[in-house]
Amino acid sequence: MKKLMTAIMLGAAMCSGCGTMTGPSGAGSAENVVLDTALTDAEKQARVFTPEVMWKMGRLGSASVSADGREVLYALTYYNMEENRGYTSLWVMSVGDPEGARQITTNTGKDNSPVWGVDGSTGERCVYFLSSRGGEGAAQQLWTVRPDGTGLRRLSEVEGGITGFGVSPKGDKVWYTADVQVDSVSSADIYGMPKSRALIYDDLMERHWDTWEDGAYSHIFVADLDPATGVSNARDIMPGEPWDAPTAPYFEMSEVAWNGAGTQIAYTCKKMTGYAYSMSTDSDIYLYDLSDGSTRNLTEGMPGYDKYPVFSPDDSRLVWQSMERARNESDKDRLFVMDLATGAKTYVTDGFDYNAANLRWSADGQSVYFIAPIEATHQICRADLSTDRVPTITVLTAGDHDYTDFSVAFPSGGDRAVMVATKTTLQMAPELFAVNAADGTDTQITFINKEIYDHVDMGRVQKRWVATTDGKRMLTWVVLPPNFDSTKRYPTLLYCQGGPQSVVSQRWSYRWNFELMAAQGYVVVAPNRRGLPSFGQEWLDQISGDYSGQNIRDYLSAIDDVSREPWVDTDRRGCVGASYGGYSTFYLAGHSDRRFRAFIAHCGMFNLESFYGETEELWFPTNDLGGAYWERPGNRVADRSYAHSPHLAVNDWYAPILIITGAKDFRIPFTQSLQAFTAARAHGIPSRLVYFEDEGHQVFKPQNSLVWNREFFGWLDKYLK
Asked: How do the residues of the chain divide into helix, strand and coil, expressed in percent and rounded to 5?
């Protein structure tokens, strides 16, 4: 059950490079695979950013700076569209010499999750990583290689493979995660009938995200690590436990951490099953002691998400992210610090009205660096933890960009921080930047997609503050087509964000890419409507229980404001969105006073009553809709939510609608899209259904992505051009 989502998340983090990667050909061999991803002459001459060009872009994977602050380690993937797959290799470069990047693993396996480490026997630097090397269908195992690319060897031989790992600071131990069969729901096992294909359940969470529960759970193992003999003496630290660590559905390895001494492991787990699991986000941080095998709950009594533990340099304290409410997956991500000796907890970001993520300690343990979403951007911040005063927060960086991750080193244990961060904008895919921790300035050090940017024209991004119907100001990104001419009139798209509580920031996307839309000749209007992070908790919380209210008015305020510009053709406006954005599209199809000429809804909620019974994480609709549909009448919030379900307004649908869904989407099952498609056809609305048999809530596979984009732009071009 766990392997599919792990593979998806790793694939999403991987990368593709532009140009041709040299080396001997031969997929599946030990030699480097040649992938020609250079732009064609026709593409260079056209200078248009197309889906085909986008899939030639470099996708930067996980990256980290070395302990001495001199080098950066990162992953890079090249996609082969014909083979419908990616090839990933590892790279090392000097922070001060961007031209000197060197490839340290061949482009033959899915090498991922690289980290700097120490060879436990020699004390020399090395790189640990996961790879499926060994031929088609090989299980993912732990490997190591020297920073110069020599000494490549496999360290594990775990049956079924491993999904994540963490090497102890001394290099003599490793934790790794692997699936363990705890029980079975298969009729073949239960009744001893090998040809029977039934799955049998007695409680909820029978399926999650994109997989059916099969009785296997992700467990953490601790083992000895020797460079000569590899991984040995492994023991499951969660024997017989029917729950996952890290937690489903993302299985993020940052939910597990070593202490500096290599004697304890902190990990995140949600020790619930069935209906209780479906109704709560209550995960906890557990501390496992290697010496006696004991485990204790550090966050007992804290009811929301508690995740991503990180030990202080002296192992005396732990920092982590914590949410307060157990049924709100989009509650404020608070930064907490615990004194491990006394158990005393400090809410560090109390009074700081933004989330805190990607936590990193300073060398002296007196500060924690983190990333916060602030006004539709993501900035690097520092919390100072001096014991003689209340913690203070400093926002170190500024500008219209997103820092999506960073690592920091303190050479020789001093105060000088060497920080390397992954940065994006709406016009730039992820690249690495060296960040000055003192003044927040940065310098680009990778140029993975330079050939692309040199030969395509990108649209200009406007930052616009729009007045809302309740007298507030809403930040709206407006992306103009390349070579924009203000004397012309352009078809215009209202983009409806999903989540419903995920920010419309400067993050680059390979699925809903605004520059790709602008390059096809569309003005894109992307509002940070009510319910999105980075504008304070009140703005974020407002949408819960009010799906059809203020945030819908915010959408209309944004499109109306931009439509006053002479370059917007108000007869050629479209509305597009996915997930909650798909709900928004379905809703606006019947409640927009005919503002739009065409709609596109991807994996949207259509019938809220049936959605409540079809989704898996019940805490989400219980919180956002105000309760279950059977609580009506009498539950005022639920009454309002279900009374404004999009399916109740299909008699007012008037414009063509494209509906896209995936068979493996269990968050918003494809049956919601089928209902909408049926309603559209029954009402004589021009409509089209695109059903991906092998995708879930998002579209990840290269060829599926091209199909998605061709359907998306084909529909818009047909009705808006």
From this structure: 20, 35, 45
Active-site residue flag, 697: yes
Q: Among the options 665, 673, 687, 705, which is catalytic?
A: 665
| Confidence band, pLDDT 50/70/90 cuts, at residue 1 | very low
**270 in Cβ contact with 243 (< 8 Å):** yes
Active site residue 184: no
Confidence of residue 386 (pLDDT cuts 50, 70, 90): confident
Q: What is the pLDDT of residues 466-511, one digit of tens each?
A: 999 999 999 999 999 999 999 999 999 999 999 999 999 999 999 9
Q: Strand 207-208 to strand 153-154: parallel, antiparallel, or no bridges (unpaired)?
A: unpaired
Read off the tokens for 521.
Answer: 């000749």
State percent of the chain over pLDDT 90.
90
Ordered DSSP codes for 21-79: --S---TTSSSPPP-EEPPPHHHHHH----HHHHTTS-EEEEEEE-TTSSEEEEEEEEE
Burial of 694 (0-12, 13-18, 19+ CB in 10 A): exposed
pLDDT at 23 over 80: no
Tokens of 588: 């606006």
The per-residue pLDDT for 31 is 65
Cα–Cα distance, 5 to 248 (Å, whole number): 9
In this prediction, residue 413 has a pLDDT band, given cuts at 50, 70 and 90, of low
8 A C-beta contact, residue 334 and residue 382:
no
Indicate the pLDDT class of residue 34, thresholds 50, 70 and 90. confident
Closest residue by Cα to residue 222 from 183, 269, 178? 178
The chain-wide mean pLDDT, for the chain, equals: 93
Residues contacting 454, CB < 8 A, separation 6+: none
3 state SS of 204: coil
Q: Is the pLDDT of residue 652 over 90?
A: yes
Catalytic pick from 16, 283, 697, 705? Answer: 697
What are 490's two structure tokens? 């352009």
- Phi and psi at residue 519, to the nearest 5°: -65, -25
Q: pLDDT tens for residues 401-411? A: 999 999 999 99
Cα dihedral: 338, 417, 508, 571 (round 10): 90
- DSSP calls for 578-641: ETHHHHHHHHHTTSSTT--SEEEEES----HHHHHHH-S-THHHHHHHSS-GGGTTT-HHHHHH
Scanning the structure block, which residue is given the tokens 């918003």?
668
Q: Whole-model pTM above 0.90?
A: yes
Amino acid type, 294: S
Question: What are the backbone angles phi and psi of residue 501, rounded to the nearest 5°?
Answer: -115, 60
Catalytic residue among 367, 579, 584, 592: 579
In the numeric block, which tokens belong to residue 297?
Answer: 């709950």
* 58: nearest Cα among 446, 368, 599: 446
Across 462-476, b (16+ Cβ under 10 Å) vs e yields eebebebeeeeebbb
Q: Is 350 a catalytic residue?
A: no
Report, as an integer, the average pLDDT of 350-374: 97
- Token digits of residue 600: 């596109």
